[in-house]
Amino acid sequence: MHNAPTDDMLVRHASPSLNVNSIHGPVVNPYHSLNEKSIPWAERERRSAGGSSGGSAAAVAAGMCDAALGTDTGGSVRLPASYCGITGLKPSYGLISRWGVVSYADSLDCVGVLGKSVDTVKTTRFHHMIQRILPQATPHAREKAKVSAESLLSTLDADLSSPDLSSLRIGIPQEYFPSELNTTIVTAVRRVLERLSSLGAQLIPVSLPSTPYALSAYYVIASAEASSNLARYDGVQYGTRSRLLPGADKSKPGNVYAHTRSVGFGAEVQKRILLGTHALTADAFDNYFLQAQRIRQRIKTDFDSAFRVPNAQLSDPSPNPDGVDILLHPSAIRTAPRLDSDAASGLGPYLQDVMTVPASLAGLPAVSIPAGLAADGWPVGVSVVGQWGSDELVMCIGKVIERTSNEDNRNF
After folding, report:
1. Which helix (H) or strand (E) holds 69?
2. Mean pLDDT of 344-363
3. Average pLDDT, the chain
4. Helix (H) or strand (E) run with residue 329 in it
5. Is residue 373 helix, strand or coil?
């Protein structure tokens, strides 16, 4: 039999964005506990570390390690990074192998890295270890990733205290400031934009009109792919087989499968499998799955129209001289929610993904960088998104933001 993931792995991998569905209980954000040591543990405010890679983010934020791996399907690296006050990178889709990762949504899953700083993610011994352990993409894919953004990199020096950003065009997507966005998040983002503007960067409003449909499309596509991928865990070739209850008819394979999958999958995983199975049925396929794929293509087109650098994945890419080099927006609609709040129930956990899923649907590189504290004293993250393959540029701008942020508001 093939080695199968534990129930905890599957539940964590498919949980919503607050990491509350693990059989071990919710992952508690360590940020407050590090800064309020005088408060008894039982009286400290328990907030979410984000999901689904919240365990990795919490370990880094608590000082248990310098960096950690995570998997990002719709924001599962960037959102925990924002909530915990650390750096989280989702690379361009396809540039890092997913070998060894339990497949959830194959067209979205990315291996990412969470670290205390951009340098930790990018250049430390841990990063080089990742490069050795995780086979890179094919030489052809690597060559295509060398987009013309490299010419812009040569004019930037993130190591300088005051780098010259006069050649950088930063797009501010209007759709990433919805009514649900907390006002203190907007204040923190404005401070970052003011710092970048003072270094010469051009701030340009852009529109990505398909963004409001991204969340719905994402959950249809992700659930459908999860339904297909997780169907293999039937207790026969994959997964742990559970004993049938006394008196159950063992001659019917369906009983064996149903019992094993009911015991082996948590409630959230079962919910997504059922939603995905429905989306793939003959009656619903056109109205749900195909429609979601059409929206996904529109989202990709929106991004390609916004960037100055052409998408190297296109057969006939053409540059857009009026486009921008990177996009900058809030990583989350709010700071880490309280685990006992309304944000941790109902549709709240799903709405947390609204800022991160568009880049996932388009397969673009994105990094969440700490940008100070909100009015409630908890970390705020800003996301830098680039064209496919421009991972180095995204990290470079992330480092500039990191260096220009107020060190007193950092939690390392």
Report:
1. strand 67-72
2. 78
3. 82
4. strand 326-330
5. strand
Quick one: pLDDT at residue 2? 36
Across the range 99-121, mean pLDDT stands at 92
- Helix, strand and coil in the chain, % to nearest 5: 45, 15, 45
- Residue 170 pairs in a beta bridge with 203, 326
68-81: pLDDT as tens digits: 999 999 999 999 99
- Alpha-carbon torsion, ordered 58, 59, 63, 69, to 10 deg: -110
Adjacent-strand bridge partners of 96: 136
The predicted structure's pLDDT at residue 256: 74
The amino acid at 399: K
- 198-256 confidence digits (pLDDT tens): 999 999 999 999 999 999 999 999 999 999 998 888 777 777 777 776 666 767 767 77
CATH for the stretch 7-209+326-409? 3.90.1300.10
Contacting residues for 77 by C-beta, under 8 A, at least 6 apart: 53, 56, 57, 70, 71, 88, 89, 90, 110, 112, 113, 114, 368
